[in-house]
Amino acid sequence: MTNPINLVIVTGMSGAGKTVAIQSFEDMGYFTIDNMPPALVPKFMELVSQSEENDKVALVVDMRSRLFFKELNSILDDLDKNQNIQFKILFLDATDGELVARYKETRRSHPLAAAGRVMDGIKLERELLAPLKSMSQNVVDTTELTPRQLRRTIAEQFSSENDAAPFRIEVMSFGFKYGLPLDADLVFDVRFLPNPYYIPELRNHTGLDQEVVSYVMSHDESENFYRHLLALINPILPGYQKEGKSVLTIAIGCTGGQHRSVAFAHRLAEELKKGWTVNESHRDKDRRKETVNRS
Predict the structure, then answer these.
(1) CA 203, CA 211: separation in Å to the nearest integer?
(2) Measuring CA to CA, which residue among 132, 130, 131, 107 is closest to residue 118?
(3) Which of 9, 191, 222, 236 has the greatest number of CB atoms lying within 10 Å of its CB?
(4) Can you tell me the distance from the alpha carbon of 143 to that of 225, in angstroms, rounded to the nearest whole number?
């Protein structure tokens, strides 16, 4: 590997947000591993250096690996001497009161508390992690941060424009008779429009066929709805992007997902492609045909 490996070691107080942090690095294109024993870091980085695929790595090393933690200082020294690795330590912290509140909310036990109080585990962990905190290039206090704000903070500190996960819009059609899409963010219902299913010559076609599109869009209520749909969607897209959402799924449904919803989803996707990255899919477009053929 010609380019140096960018390694981020994510550590800090238990309950301070390391899970959110490692997910953020994954969204930025890092190869991530949670709860990496420090003793395995050198061998793992050796394997990464032999690969051409991963030049950005983020590892969570925390007190769940306390049996190995005493070896971390010497490991960090070795990493610092390796010219093929550029590494930083991200240390996440929070006030004792906030950490206690988070443990009470999740009803989990502190990894160092054993059978004792949560505060006992927090106090011991602070003592053990103090030297590592002083070595960290990036210390983030998550006391007042929501998960979304923490993601944004990490992106600001560690990502470039090339690292940031691109904002993508998924436009899909579906049939209500087959159930709502579980991953849909916005759902629109076009079952109020005239149904091409009841036109014999259109029944076996789909909303991607021009004759169906012409029929669906020939009605005043169709054009009126489409104009209002665009007027609703266009202003809110920048807001979703600004808030760090990587994928926005817009689902348009009709009864069977073959005619009206397909026509509308395709038209909407084509319009949004003028300014955004858009993927188009039609979940149930051919389902009725497949059912008929099987029977």
Answers:
(1) 11
(2) 107
(3) 9
(4) 45
pLDDT tens sequence across 187-198: 999 999 999 999
3-class secondary structure per residue, 227-257: HHHHHHHHHHHHHHHHCCCCEEEEEEEECCC
Interior/surface letters 49-65, b for 16+ CB within 10 angstroms, e for the rest: eeeeeebbbbbbbbbbb
> Do the strands 247-254 and 138-141 form a parallel or antiparallel pair, or are they unpaired?
unpaired
CA angle 152, 158, 160 (to 5 degrees): 95
What is the per-residue pLDDT for 118? 80
Tens of pLDDT, residue by residue over 105-146, are 876 777 777 666 888 888 888 888 888 888 888 899 999 888
- Cα 165 from Cα 48, distance rounded (Å): 22
Number of C-beta neighbours around residue 193 at 10 A: 20
User: 0.85 exceeded by the pTM?
Assistant: no
Residues 6+ apart with CB under 8 A from 128: 63, 66, 69, 112
Distance CA 284, CA 232 (A): 25
Query: What's CA 178's distance to the chain center, in Å?
Result: 26
> What tokens were used for 262?
């397909």
State how far the alpha carbon of 156 is from the alpha carbons of 6, 19, 140, 160, 172, in Å.
16, 18, 12, 8, 32
Element (H, E) at 69: none
Q: Which residue has the tokens 């690292």?
A: 163
> Which segments of 68-204 does DSSP mark as H helices, in order?
72-81, 96-106, 118-135, 147-158
Q: Report which of 98, 289, 143, 138 is spatially closest to residue 205, judged by C-alpha positions.
A: 289
| Structure confidence by residue, pLDDT tens digits, 66-118 | 555 667 777 877 887 877 888 888 999 999 889 888 887 876 777 777 666 88
